[in-house]
CENP-V/GFA domain-containing protein (Paraphaeosphaeria sporulosa), 273 residues
Amino acid sequence: MSKSKPFPAIHGGCFCGSTRYRLETAPLFNHACHCQDCNKHTGSVFACFTTIETEFITSFGKTPPKITTTVRPNGLVRHLATCGTCGTRLWASGDRSTVIADINTGTLDLPELMEPDVHEYIESKISWVLLPEGTKTCKGPFDYTKWWPKSSLKRLEAAIQRAQERKKLQVKVAQAESLDVEDEKEADKTPTAQTPDEKDEVAEDDEEFERRYLETEKALQERLEQLSLRLKVHEKVQGDDLRPGVVQAAKEPASESPSAEPKEVPAATVSEK
Ligand SMILES: [Zn+2]
Ligand SMILES: [Zn+2]
């Protein structure tokens, strides 16, 4: 793996800091949604999501994410990962497939880097939410087969394939075990789609790992270039702010402004930071 630049780890976590996660590779896509469901779900006026293969989210920290599974009337299974302590919504999988997850972009440590590639349900956007000129939008849900870069579609295909192989393996193991112990608890073996820890069961070999990196490298580099450009702008602004005496003046108005987002009092959880 020495020949390809490793993707810098992207970290994120919940409000109280006890549930942390890391993205093992670059996201597949970023999108914003202005539908009313997302507004309700997130408690905001529009939602931003960073999509990645579920198996490439590694959780760490004091508390593992709490996974809540629901089965929708149409049979789709959805897994929602939240912090078991503070309740922050971290990611959900199953909207399209449990193989991929939509991370709540705001839970990333540097959400600044994940500008949405498209804003969907633009027809229900709240009028005082203003988008930068040139923002890509669409009415209703965006069609990922048209909007995702080819490299991401390839990655999705590969992820689906890996999931199918894991399922087959699980079925085989279950069959083998049922021969030994007929009344083995079947529930434990039911392949209920991905959960973040499922990847522990199948180790990816080096060759496959390398192949995956090479496949996505171009997309990663493009994204990285964008990110570093944005970071440079960011650093410059921050550098200016750090001049003695300027820091207070520059920062306070932004954080103190009585904007639409009332500050929640973190009560006991704040001491954990
Ligand atoms: Zn938390
Ligand atoms: Zn939505």
Observations:
- The domain at 10-272 is CATH 2.170.150.70 (Metal Binding Protein, Guanine Nucleotide Exchange Factor; Chain A).
